[in-house]
Amino acid sequence: MASIEFILLPLIGCLLIVMINVYFGIHVIKREIIFIDIALASIAALGSAVGMVLFEMGHENHSHEPHGFLPYIFSMGFISLASFAFTLLRNKKISIPLEAIIGIAYAVATTLTVIILDKGAGGDVHVHDMLVGTILWISGHQLTRLAVVVIIVGAFHFVYRKKFVRLTDSFHENDTGIKNRMLWDFLFYFSFGLVVVEAVRIAGILTVFAFLILPASLSVILSGKWITKLIVGWLAGIVASFAGLLLSLKLDVPSAPVIITILGIILLLGYLLYKINNYKKQIKKIPGS
Amino acid sequence: MGTLVFLAPPIVACIILAGMLSYFGNHILSRGIIFIDIAVAQIAALGTMIGILLGFAESSVGAQIVSYAFTIIVLGIFSVMKVKKQLLPQEAIIGIFYCVALGMALLLAEKIPGGSNYITKTITGNVLWVTWKSVVSCLFMFVPIIILNLLLGKSIRKVTQGEIINNSFGKTRIYDLVFYITFGIVIVKSVPVMGIFLVFILLIGPASISRMFVNSWKSRIIWSWVIGSVGSLAGIYISYTLNISNGPAIVGIIGIATYLAAFARLYSKRSGKEIAATN
Q: Which residue, A3, A150, A185, B146, has fewest beta-carbon neighbours within 10 Å?
């Protein structure tokens, strides 16, 4: 069973991302801000690109340390700015969906990053890597960082879970009646941004997005309560991670598309199950009524 | 004069596209399906890859037909999937389609030499390379779409606002299908020329600005067109003087303008009620 050992670290990485992303996914679907994760990832990338350029301007020796301190600080700064803007612009005065604001931030951040990194060659490769990630080659150090962030953010959301659930449930209403709504909204986006930055660095934008949306969609279709939603989503995510990593190793194909395909199949089966149940209910109803 | 001749086709292309996308953008915003064009572009790219795997040469008529057919089928599924009682927001379904299409494209990319190019290709795009020939071919595609949407415009608008046409759920779906297919063709046609982010920003940015300040549907579309055209011209001018790529320059200008407009709206004295009421 050498292959199990080989996929142990990536599997733990996937499971950590699944744990936190299913939770955030249910929030995000309810708020209808589906693409916030991709937007935050590109805003963070823009931040680290700006930081990298400034770092190289200050240091003539051009030491190419990809994850330097300054780029990280800058990506955190950009994420807090974006979180602040998203918090402010969810306002009844603004008659456009927040998703539009998020989408524009995504487009601007990505194109600005391209302008900044234009000088460097191999931009295509960079884009491809950022999309797909390299979770099979995750290092122990990366895994530790991810675990620390996931545990801190997870614990924070667990302690204040009622607050966050109420915040999301009343997201589409003008008067939420929640004290310091702006502060909590900001904390929601910022904590999610922290997770996205670490997760995308390891697994790539696409896998992280898949873990956010697909299992949570399944749980929204199949169940109503928060706790059962979480369990359904987690189960789907765990099965897909395990089977996906194993298959990708056996078939020698990239892991991201395999995991997504499996998640997609699970979602489709879940949808069919829901349809069949509905159909059965209707059949039962007709003779009774 | 030389530069003007050189810049004329991209400018004309931007103005035509700004008009076309201002119409669709206002619909998209009302429906709350912001990322549909990125999903459609990804689905079209996957269609092209399927075409290549079927043995058609790249950018041949065959590969293009496969790409269009594939996109139309997927959009058809998407518009049929709308049920009376919506469980998932449509934007979430778009997210799922996007994700799965991109995943499939990555798998297929392994089978095609240089396949990963097709994935990154949609991201870039350069307005300066637009020629009169592609402007004319865009117009040729757009005229029937404009006529169709003018003829069915009223009903399509009602569907966008969530009404049921003639009390028939099926008829409503047909109008929806016309909307999505015409929209899909515009996106598939324009993304390879302009790049996905330019199309995205022309779709969402101007429509967002006009929606925040203007009430009537018609003047929203006209204002979106004006804003999109002015933004494109400003972007092309800046990119020309500062020597940066023009696509990103336009995206930057319209994007930042939208944020400024949103904050202006937020801190303006006028109440937002009268605008919110007409949504």
A: A3
